[in-house]
Amino acid sequence: MSKDRLYLFDTTLRDGQQTQGVQFSTAEKVQIARALDALGIDYIEGGWPGANPTDSAFFDAAPKTNARMTAFGMTKRSGRSAENDDVLAAVLNAGTGTVCLVGKSHDYHVTKALGISLDENLDNLAASFAHIVAQGREAIFDAEHFFDGYKANPDYALQCLHAARDAGCRWIVLCDTNGGTLPDEIGRITRAVIDSGIPGSHLGIHTHNDTGNAVAGSLAAVDAGARHVQGTLNGLGERCGNANLVSLIPTLLLKPQYADTLDTGISPESLRDLTRISRQLDDILNRVPVKTAPYVGASAFAHKAGLHASAILKDPATYEHVDPSVVGNERIIPMSNQAGQSNLRKRLGEAGLEVEPGTPALGAILNQIKEREAQGYSYDTAQASFELLARRELGLLPEFFEVKRYRVTIERRKNKRNQMVTLSEAVVVVKIGGEKKLSVSESMDASGQDRGPVNALANALAKDLGPYQKFIDDIKLVDFKVRITQGGTEAVTRVIIDSEDSSGRRWSTVGVSPNIVDASFEALLDAVTWKLVREGAKAP
Amino acid sequence: MSKDRLYLFDTTLRDGQQTQGVQFSTAEKVQIARALDALGIDYIEGGWPGANPTDSAFFDAAPKTNARMTAFGMTKRSGRSAENDDVLAAVLNAGTGTVCLVGKSHDYHVTKALGISLDENLDNLAASFAHIVAQGREAIFDAEHFFDGYKANPDYALQCLHAARDAGCRWIVLCDTNGGTLPDEIGRITRAVIDSGIPGSHLGIHTHNDTGNAVAGSLAAVDAGARHVQGTLNGLGERCGNANLVSLIPTLLLKPQYADTLDTGISPESLRDLTRISRQLDDILNRVPVKTAPYVGASAFAHKAGLHASAILKDPATYEHVDPSVVGNERIIPMSNQAGQSNLRKRLGEAGLEVEPGTPALGAILNQIKEREAQGYSYDTAQASFELLARRELGLLPEFFEVKRYRVTIERRKNKRNQMVTLSEAVVVVKIGGEKKLSVSESMDASGQDRGPVNALANALAKDLGPYQKFIDDIKLVDFKVRITQGGTEAVTRVIIDSEDSSGRRWSTVGVSPNIVDASFEALLDAVTWKLVREGAKAP
């Protein structure tokens, strides 16, 4: 049986840019467009040319893609022809093969927001799309507020869709602009649209996550017959975000009810890049990836409960709905205080440490973990520190160097221009073999801003480790989390540090102390030591 | 028409505790239980007594609630009677009126994971629930892997449910344990269960978010007739989390298709606490609240797009599916401050500052708050720092003293007995009137343990403030919270400090800086200054 083609339309660069706190540069837009194209997305909506400078610049710089590059705009305004509407002209001037225009389909918005008659709006829709089609472009109609419009005045809402369709629109996209429509309503109303004479092969869906149902709403429209889905990477978008394509794509490719009947054009090979692409977007936005994200989150295949963890060891399918590797993700069995020796051996195996059952060190490692977790350590996320702890017990950790002492000074005082400034300075003294090395660092970033004592310490520690320097030069501190594990003045601080190297490898380490600087230093030390282990460095 | 009762079952304290990186203390569990009870949740699942010490301790300390406190456990094991199963006995010994047991309903898991016959499992289910009911407890069956089990062997899966029901179970809960079942399947299978003779008034749903559809799956089961929904606050839970009650509750109360036919027992007044409760949980977990969270996120009603923002000013319903105030959230529109000023005056009044409407300082205060919140400050909890900011703008803050400079040194080195020890020392220089005062302090507690640089700074700052000393001698640092407000190397640290004096008065102050010590110092300084204001101290 031949499969129906389901088209994916990405609007990360347009609707996704409406996310609070998000502002892409042109270079970032180009980078994201390339990633979307490599993934195999059908349409990339690049922005609204003419509405802001970055969007216009993007279309000038847009990379050559297999995906159809799409410019966004709005239908022509009343009182002028489509040919003479300068806003529309700017959109067409971007020169894309596909043009997507938002327009009204809710009677209330026509009369209240536009202040024109219902018929006038129908004329504007027809004229706008006829103009685009006459220019040889593919036309898409984003029918704004369609579901609310349909509930208020179904006849008029449908008339709007048909006006656009009759003018030659390739796709009529039903938009739940306010995000308040629930999936069952979306399914029911989509079926009503198809019954009105617009075939599903020309229908699209555009949802928002204001009730937490954007993905389900999209699936409901596909179930009803729509064959075009709009969404964004990582669910970026105004308010609560748009439908998350990173959640939708694996469901469409992996769940039999979709995989057996629909073809999205995305290959299994591309699907394995999904986790990487999702995290790349977070990198560009300087955000910490959401651990609990469906399919691609760092916790999406993490098994903490004792019962679950032991069942997973027998058969992964017991607590996993799909194999994590098909989306480029990994299974994680964290060490929590219920974990037994078999979990431990599994985790050690993943770190390349094969240990025979019954080895006495296994019991010692479990005891150490238990003891340290009671002090405030946590090895759920700090896998690299876990590995070092295990290696120490197993006698598999070289003594690369010894820290003799360190000193950090933080000073706040007036500078020459009589401004209060803060300065941090760190001195670290290590012994490598017989040789003593003193390193000192400040913690200024490129802009001259003090980044604090932990940065100063990290810089000093990594400044001169002699024979190891070549292994650690590419370590970058990418995240830093602090948690106070006991309240009050007896507070104990837990610091978790995420590091990354030039190969893209990422690892997490932990330190605990009543002194936050000391806790940080412990985590930094583990980060460096783990890298040396991974690089196969030898003790002096 | 009388409405059907829909029961809400919260498992934040049990399944929510399976979240990677989450480990509640007993005190935190009590605090969360109180919040759930105030919200009007029907069932609070407190944990698995006997499985870990915190859960057992919680049931000993559990607060008196209107909600039905529920202990979790598993059905009796084979080869012993329900009366002689020690795991089950520990669950019953918690003394809760309701007991929820997880048991198998998927044939594969019975034979593979338990290694017993299908009939034996049915006997275990019947015996376990009969035993609970005989003890006068309300019984709930969490049918693990039910949807996968139904797809594999519908007859057997249904037999398991009926065995529990016939033994007197109040609720049969259909669990999508792996989170892979899509909403339309959940709806279809729930209807099949009802058709098999278990009425919806005895059926519950328990979903996970592995495909991003946990909320939609719960709604699909309710649509099919289920009248008990399990979930967690903020969607905590193993892997991608459980169904998020914070998203579900407003949908059930505000959307006509549910509000007109179902009664959840949650009042409109309680619903207005939802945003606060959601953020309180994040505070307890020291997490940054998710801005894009449906209904309660800080961005959930933020309107960035120019077109949207101007339409919102004409009529909020144009781009909002519900009114933000009904869930205790706020609309955010750039350049709108009408609502802002009256809220602000209300808050100032709470701090004893009566300000006339239209006073120009009000606009200046709002701008300051906005600017500082963009830098990472938060005045939600740090009331004392908010008051100081407002007093400064209103010209109501005396200049008690000036900090000229401070210096903190943290040193780790070997002591005389060749042990590595950490020492912190702080010097603070202030000017009071014309007089300069230098103070120095270490940070040792009574046991000789270093408590870190922030303690050293607090001690030095409060050591000698001359004429003010009598006002500040009784300040105690009682809590210290650190949060990184931006990820990566550009991390900015927010410190919130809670202080207390001998009268039992408590106040919170905030500091923000890339340098954690500097952020702490700012919060300490506010703590001292606020106390001087409260004591009516005069500038020198």
UniProtKB/TrEMBL annotation, chains A, B:
What does the record give as the reaction this protein catalyses?
pyruvate + acetyl-CoA + H2O = (3R)-citramalate + CoA + H(+)
Q: Which GO terms describe its biological process?
A: isoleucine biosynthetic process; L-leucine biosynthetic process
Q: Which ranges does the record mark as transmembrane?
A: none
**UniProt cross-references to InterPro entries, sorted A to Z:** 2-isopropylmalate_synth_dimer, AIPM/Hcit_synth_CS, Aldolase_TIM, Citramal_synthase, LeuA/HCS_post-cat, LeuA_allosteric_dom_sf, PYR_CT
What is any Pfam family matched here? Answer: LeuA_dimer
Query: GO molecular-function annotation terms?
Result: (R)-citramalate synthase activity; 2-isopropylmalate synthase activity
Q: List where this protein forms a coiled coil.
A: none
Recorded hits in CDD domains, A to Z, give:
DRE_TIM_LeuA3
Where does the Pyruvate carboxyltransferase domain lie? 6-272
Q: Does the keyword Amino-acid biosynthesis apply?
A: yes
Q: What is its EC number?
A: 2.3.3.21
Q: What keywords sit in the KW lines?
A: Amino-acid biosynthesis, Branched-chain amino acid biosynthesis, Isoleucine biosynthesis, Transferase
Q: In which pathway does it act?
A: Amino-acid biosynthesis; L-isoleucine biosynthesis; 2-oxobutanoate from pyruvate: step 1/3
Query: The organism sits in which domain of life?
Result: Bacteria
Q: Which family does it belong to?
A: Belongs to the alpha-IPM synthase/homocitrate synthase family.
- Name of protein: Citramalate synthase
